[in-house]
Design goal:
Blueprint (H helix, E strand, L loop, with lengths): L1 H11 L9 E9 L6 H5 L9 E2 L1 H12 L4 E11 L2 E10 L3 E10 L2 E13 L4 E10 L3 E10 L8 E9 L2 E10 L8 E18 L2 E19 L6 E17 L10 E13 L3 E4 L9 E4 L3 E9 L9 E9 L1 E5 L2 E14 L2 E17 L3 E13 L7 E3 L13 E3 L1 E15 L3 E15 L9 E12 L7 E9 L4 E8 L4
Parallel strand pairs: 1-4
Antiparallel strand pairs: 1-2, 3-4, 5-6, 6-7, 7-8, 8-9, 9-10, 10-11, 11-12, 12-13, 13-14, 14-17, 15-16, 17-18, 18-20, 19-20, 20-21, 21-22, 22-25, 23-24, 25-26, 26-27, 27-28, 28-29
Length: 489
């Protein structure tokens, strides 16, 4: 908990600007053509007669920008004689579409399509129907439905179902999240069943293959305290049954298990945001969280609750974030998961990542990332893959594997053309990395370099970024084309 104490101390000394408050007299909404006005109004955190503060205006703007079917959002406040008239202007995005899916390399391409409506009936509901051919896992179809406000209230419903060549999945989730910073509590519950096939690789060849069926559920309850610094303790309880079978032609499969896991945890964070453009998206306004946070969870698996074995488990997640200069952002994260029983620490997963973004003239950037992953004494055989799909362009998707992974990426991002419907950008990159097993081999860094193109769809739901990169892997002496959605990192 020393890290948590340090972060609290860091955020407590930050200055807080004083603000003048007024009483809301009237609220008007404009710009919405398909989205119903009540859908927008329910995200506004104040109403006529309430005291209005700058913090409420900023949080309302963030809530509205988080809706995938809205583009630009402006909240204008006219003050007079201690009263305020608020005008909210939004831009509807094209939220109903058939979208192609495309990712992978030319000789191992995954493709398909998604029919979706991110603003179903203008009520903010999400409906997705997906049909896809995965180059590794085969064909699959998926249906998803999400209702962020059941009956116009604060309860959220999530339904997700999938049937594929290698298994099926069904998820039902009901929750009441923290819908505003001042909200005092949240609660949620999930039930699921998931059948899938896992592959282990050795030199790009499948060495083991097994099928797993996971059935389970979880519930959680959280409280929230504080204003400028949030302290959110929680109670969690989960149950899952896992069974495994090796696939024909293979011999390995983990042992089946049943886990009943009560736990407690706490998160401490500074809810500080900055409005920015050209960070992860290509032009759309983004709300970047630059406040640091830390979370810690401690729990137990016990045979007294019908688990198959006794052990303690813990999870630590530390996220220091800072601005090194007015145009330089440093986002880092350290995670650690481990179990303890009979005087032995096992099933240890650790990860550390730092990403620095330097903005140039507002619309260009140089982005650097360093990441390290490691696993030790896992309950079941586990590995990290490295290639075009996992941070190293210029090589096959699963070119390297091991229980340690080191990544280095540097990318120059240049915005070439801005249009009201799209944004065109180019990148130049250098990637380096290694995946290895320290027991049998030494770390061997390999490098790649290349160029890429990005197309941001400014008027489409969630403002997606289409990506295509071609990289030259110096170790393999070959070019590899890799396509996908979103920035590469």
């Amino acid at each position: 908990m020393l890290v948590a104490g340090v972060l609290v101390a860091m955020v407590l000394v930050l200055p807080v600007a004083a603000e003048n408050s007024v009483v809301v007299r009237d609220i008007t909404i404009s710009g919405n053509s398909r989205t119903r006005t009540e859908v927008i109004r329910r995200e506004i955190l104040f109403e006529p007669g309430d005291t209005l503060t700058a913090a409420l205006v900023e949080e309302t703007s963030r809530n509205l920008r988080a809706l995938l079917f809205l583009g630009e959002v402006t909240v204008d406040v006219s003050r007079m004689d201690g009263y305020a008239d608020v005008h909210v202007h939004v831009t509807d995005l094209y939220a109903r579409a058939i979208t192609p899916l495309l990712s992978g390399e030319p000789d191992e391409l995954s493709y398909g399509g998604v029919g979706l409506d991110y603003n179903f009936l203008g009520r903010g509901q999400i409906v997705e129907l997906t049909a896809e051919h995965d180059a590794v896992k085969g064909d699959r179809v998926r249906a998803l439905y999400r209702e962020p406000r059941v009956g116009g209230g604060r309860v959220r419903l999530y339904l997700d179902g999938e049937i594929g060549a290698e298994g099926h999945r069904a998820v039902v989730r009901v929750s009441r999240p923290f819908f505003r910073l001042s909200e005092a509590w949240s609660v949620g519950g999930t039930g699921y069943i998931h059948e899938s096939v896992t592959r282990l690789y050795a030199g790009q060849t499948v060495s083991e293959k097994y099928r797993s069926i996971d059935r389970g559920g979880s519930v959680s309850f959280r409280r929230s305290f504080g204003d400028k610094v949030k302290v959110r303790p929680g109670i969690f309880f989960s149950v899952n049954d896992l069974s495994f079978d090796s696939e024909p032609g293979f011999t390995y499969a983990p042992a089946g298990r049943r886990r009943v896991l009560p736990s407690v945890g706490v998160m401490i964070w500074k809810p500080e945001y900055e409005t920015i453009r050209f960070f992860s998206l290509l032009g759309r306004t983004e709300d970047l969280q630059i406040g640091s946070w830390v979370s810690f969870q401690l729990g137990v698996s016990t045979e007294a609750l019908r688990s198959d074995r006794d052990y303690l488990f813990m999870t630590l997640d530390v996220n220091p974030r800072t601005k090194l200069s007015p145009f330089t952002y440093l986002l880092s994260r350290v995670t650690l998961r481990a179990r303890y029983s009979q005087g032995r620490v096992w099933n240890v997963f650790g990860s550390a990542e730092a990403k620095m973004l330097e903005k140039i003239r507002g619309i260009h950037a140089i982005v650097t990332r360093v990441r390290f992953d490691a696993v030790a004494r896992p309950e079941e055989t586990t590995q990290y893959l490295l290639g075009s799909e996992r941070g190293l362009r210029g090589y096959a998707a699963r070119r390297f594997d091991g229980t340690r992974r080191l990544l280095f990426n540097i990318e120059g991002r240049s915005t070439l053309k801005r249009h009201r419907f799209f944004t065109l950008a180019g990148v130049v990159f250098v990637d380096g990395g290694s995946a290895w097993m320290p027991e049998t081999e030494s770390r061997n860094l390999v490098w790649a370099a290349g160029v890429g193109v990005r197309v941001g769809m400014n008027r489409v739901y969630n403002s997606p970024v289409l990506r295509a990169d071609v990289g030259y892997g110096f170790a393999d002496q070959g070019w590899v084309l890799f396509v996908g959605l979103g920035q590469y990192f």
